[in-house]
Design a protein that fits this description.
Helix content is 24%, strand content 39%. The protein is built from six helices and twelve strands. The strands form two sheets. Strands 2-3-4-1-5-8-7-6 form an eight-stranded mixed sheet. It has a four-stranded mixed sheet with strand order 10-9-11-12.
Length: 201
């Protein structure tokens, strides 16, 4: 079944943004890695089956040549949630929307590689709609399960997705935790449920 995989939060300074978030929320992050060819790098806030992704441009020249890098650079000054990725099997997305999967990867700090297949990324970058992912890793290697020392326990993730509701319904379907709201396209409210109470990003 489709579910929220991660929320993208473009920022100018990865370390500063992650530290400020940990101070405010009690949720800590781990180093993610580089995205070769896109000029970006990330830090991961694991939430169990999902995660928050702080992402920043680390190579401006490389990012300028990448649609994804340019998207990150455009949204980074706001420092707020700007993208949503939904985990769904490739075959399901292809059958529903006719999208072609593309393989991506990033280098891990230990020198290994994390790989996945994405669908709908071009639409996400131009239309501000969610994109889709199928991971090519065992469940225990999913970024949402990276080891960190949170000061509170994350219990869930809810996302408000704005746009044309009929179009979004066709694009996304029904996904637990996602609420569709009419408005300018993009990610609206994001709430992480924790033992300390709800945390709005």
């Amino acid at each position: 079944m489709a579910h929220i995989d991660h929320v993208l939060i473009p920022v100018v300074d990865l370390t500063a943004a992650a530290e400020a978030f940990a101070e405010r929320s009690g949720l800590r992050s781990a180093v993610g890695g580089r995205h070769p060819g896109h000029g970006t790098a990330n830090r991961i806030v694991p939430l169990g089956g999902a995660y928050l992704e702080f992402i920043s441009v680390v190579d401006p020249d490389e990012a300028a040549a990448s649609p994804f890098g340019r998207w990150v650079a455009r949204h980074a000054p706001a420092g707020r949630p700007a993208g949503l990725c939904i985990a769904e099997p490739v075959r399901s997305v292809v059958d529903r929307l006719g999208l072609e999967p593309i393989r991506m990867a990033r280098r891990l700090p230990d020198g290994g590689e994390l790989s996945w297949r994405l669908m709908g990324l071009a639409d996400a970058l131009t239309r501000e709609v969610p994109f889709f992912i199928e991971w090519e890793v065992p469940p225990d290697r999913h970024p949402g399960r990276m080891p960190v020392s949170h000061e509170t326990v994350p219990r869930g993730l809810a996302v408000e997705l704005r746009g044309d509701v009929d179009e979004l319904t066709t694009w996304v379907g029904e996904v637990p935790g996602i609420t569709l709201v009419a408005g300018a396209p993009g990610v609206g409210r994001v709430v992480v449920e924790t033992d300390a109470g709800p945390l709005e990003l």
